[in-house]
Structures are given as structure tokens and as C-alpha cells.
Amino acid sequence: xxxxxxxxxxxxxxxxxxxxxxxxxxxxxxxxxxxxxxxxxxxxxxxxxxxxxxxxxxxxxxxxxxxxxxxxxxxxxxxxxxxxxxxxxxxxxxxxxxxxxxxxxxxxxxxxxxxxxxxxxxxxxxxxxxxxxxxxxxxxxxxxxxxxxxxxxxxxxxxxxxxxxxxxxxxxxxxxxxxxxxxxxxxxxxxxxxxxxxxxxxxxxxxxxxxxxxxxxxxxxxxxxxxxxxxxxxxxxxxxxxxxxxxxxxxxxxxxxxxxxxxxxxxxxxxxxxxxxxxxxxxxxxxxxxxxx
Length: 293
Fold this sequence. Notes:
The chain is α/β, with parallel strands linked by helices. Helix content is 31%, strand content 17%. It is built from 7 helices and 11 strands. It has a 6-stranded mixed sheet with strand order 4-5-7-9-11-10, covered by helices on one side.
């Protein structure tokens, strides 16, 4: 028994060390200070142009890793309610991107499952604050939102019933087109949650197979006539198991990719942003749960 316990401890230590090394490698590759200049915008001599007034400007916000939790008294829902009531009323953005981990999906002891109460509270906040009458709320799943979900049509999959975006798009990945008097702007939501969704901690990494990439490529082609394109996802691209060269090619014409998931790695990497080859920005936001970012 003693030897078995020692063996399990050794495996845990080695696994932790390997994960730490992988994360450090990802951070070095994706969040180091970029070199060179930004790609020159191909339509820079065509309108719309900014001027001295608040014209030809699109305001949008990102919120990520909300983690509404029954084991924390749903306190984050109170903060989300204030965000939806006061912050949005002050800024009045055209679009809000909620990039995953809408709910926490964990017991106090660390085991995971989907809690009906968390999803109901998330939907209640959106409904009672009238969010959809103020802005376009683009939400998508994070790994916590797919803990212990055997398949998308399983009763434990709550996103379809309680999210805002499913009612309008009926897919996990989708294209929202914002039309303005000065042109169109594309917001492309990329869901990389594994299916089936394993329990914690085995869905830390996202997955995009060839079929997923085909669908994302079709979305990117739909956005070619937009003034600008923004990709949104829960997972940073460095944490997605996929054909990275193909994914970069699909996203190459976009302005930026905004994401969440890593929570600034416990405060060790507070500025999680970088510039990919070709000029596309990759911007990871810290969590709303603790940092209110």
C-alpha cells in the first residue's frame, strides 16, 4: 500500500511538472514581446475614417471566466448583475463577448458536474437586467461549462437552454455580423470544447479536428467583406490541440483573437497578449470571477 501511494504521488508530481513546462513553453511562444511592425491594413485609404468626433467607432467589451458557483453562494452572479446594469449602461457597447466558463461546475472538493442552479442564475441575470435590449451578448462555452457532458444532446448540456447565443445561432461556433451605417463587422465565435466533455481536470486543453476547421474556414470566408473581423474563443490558440498552421491561416485576415481560460496563471503572467506572425493580435483577458476584468 505504501509503495502504491508513493507511486501515485510520483506520477502526480511528474504530471504537474510536465504541465508547468508546457504552460511555460506556451507562454514563451505566444505571449513574448512581439518584434517587427504591424501588418499594414490593406484598406487603409478607404472609408470609414476616424475623426474628431465619436463617429465611425464600434464599441465592444469582453468578459470572461465568470464562474457562477453554487459552492460560493452565487456571489459572482451579484457582480455580473452589477456589470450588466451599471457598466453596460455607462459604456453602451454594441457587442459584449462572454468568452466561456460562464458557470463553475465544481463541488467544493474539486470534483465536477453541471449544476442546474448555476445555469438558471446565469440566465436569470441576463433576463432581469435586460441585457439583450441593451447590447448583443455573444456567449460561448468554456471547459467548466462542458464538465461531465457526454454529448451535446445529453440533458447535462445546459448551454443550449440557458445561453443567449444559442437562441439566435443554434450552434456552438457561429458568426455574428454587426451592421452599422459605416460598414459591417464580423464576430466569429470558436468553440473548442472537447466532446464528450470529460470531468475535471481532463478537459484543460481544447480540440479542433478537420471538420471543425472546415466549419471555421467557412465562417472566415463569410467575413471577408467586413471592415474588420474579431475571433472569440475560450481557449487561447496555444491551448488548442489542432493543426495550428491551418488555424493560423484561417484566422490570418482578422484584426484580433480574444480569449480567456488561463486566469493570468495565478498572477504570474498578468499581461497575456501577443502578436502572431502577420500582425493578428491574440489577447487573453483575466477572469471576472476574482479579478473583475
